[in-house]
Design goal:
By secondary structure, the protein is an alpha/beta fold. The chain has a domain of 177 residues: Ribonuclease Z/Hydroxyacylglutathione hydrolase-like (Metallo-beta-lactamase, Chain A), CATH 3.60.15.10. It is 33% helix and 24% strand. It has nine helices and 14 strands. It has a six-stranded mixed beta sheet, with helices on one face. It has a six-stranded mixed beta sheet with strand order 7-8-9-10-13-14. Strands 11-12 form a two-stranded antiparallel sheet. Helix 3 packs across helix 9 and helix 4 runs antiparallel to helix 5. The relative contact order is 0.11. The mean pLDDT is 95. The structure holds zinc ion (ZN). The site of zinc ion has 6 residues, from loops. Zinc ion (ZN) binds next to loops.
Length: 281
């Protein structure tokens, strides 16, 4: 379900910790703001203070600790804070500390009403079983599912890889002008891995040469530079085979060569996601 908002709003990124991003949504006509993720108190509090904002809503994209660390400090200053996120967050944080905590499940067609805004929810498991994408018009707050030129790590078995592959496919099916707001900036490392597979890709080259403002990215760009968006394309699969051959990844090359055509996209995803975790630029 896609909702359309008439309200004006502004999205402000906040850099936290080593490479995290949180985001504030400023709403027109009120000082109440929405915060996406609570990675680190000081930069978030500084931004709230600089804008004389009142933190009214905290949205959590998933349960990993580097997105939750500022919750207690923020609740101490903003005791009326309402929280939002997947129900599994209640296994990791005390949701009863919030004045309200609105919990969502894995269903399609859920809508979150936050402040005066309506967000369509996309359940996006793979990196975490609690990952939800929050879509506001063409702005998708995506947590650690997709980063610029890459995707989040996978900590489970083969079913988690399959879930992540499906999650990325569903993001890739959104309109090309959808803006993606990731939870981390790992761009340079991601781009260099993408370049190792596609050394002649001019889009990757120019992104590597650009100054480092990486958020938001967008689906049109990711279709050009992000290897995890391309695994269904035969010309990209051929580049992966050439990369595996050149780097002596014989077992992976054999796995791809022996894959039935209907499984090639997923097997390509599985192989490059595993190689990315071991890869050093
Ligand atoms: Zn995470």
């Amino acid at each position: 379900m896609v909702t359309k908002n008439n309200n004006d709003y502004k999205i402000i990124p906040i850099k936290c910790l080593a490479d995290n991003y949180c985001y504030i949504i400023e709403l027109k006509g009120t000082k109440d703001v929405i915060l996406f993720d609570a990675s680190q108190s000081t930069p978030i509090k500084d931004k709230l203070q600089a804008g004389a904002y009142n933190l009214a809503h905290l949205v959590l994209t998933h349960h990993h600790h580097d997105h939750l660390g500022a919750i207690d400090d923020l609740l101490a200053q903003h005791p009326k804070l309402t929280g939002y996120g997947h129900w599994e967050l209640s296994k990791h944080i005390e949701v009863s500390k919030f004045s309200q905590f609105k919990q969502y499940n894995n269903n399609r067609d859920q809508v979150a009403h936050i402040g005066d805004l309506s967000f369509s929810l996309l359940y996006l498991p793979g990196h975490a079983s609690s990952s939800i994408g929050f879509l506001l018009d063409n702005h998708l707050f995506i947590g650690d599912v997709v980063f610029k030129a890459g995707c989040g790590g996978i900590f489970g078995g083969i079913s988690s890889y399959k879930e992540m592959w499906q999650s990325i496919n569903s993001i890739n099916s959104l309109p090309a002008d959808t803006l993606l707001y990731p939870g981390h900036d790992l761009s340079l490392d991601n781009l260099k891995f993408a370049q190792a597979i596609e050394p002649n890709n001019e889009f990757i080259k120019s992104e590597i040469a650009r100054p480092s403002c990486v958020t938001p990215t967008n689906i049109a760009l990711e279709r050009k530079i992000n290897p995890f968006f391309k695994t269904a394309k035969p010309e990209f699969q051929a580049k992966v085979r050439a990369f595996l051959k050149a780097n002596n990844h014989h077992a992976e090359l054999l796995e791809i060569t022996n894959s039935p055509p209907e499984k090639l996209s997923f097997i390509t995803f599985l192989i490059i996601r595993k190689l990315k975790s071991r890869w050093k630029c």
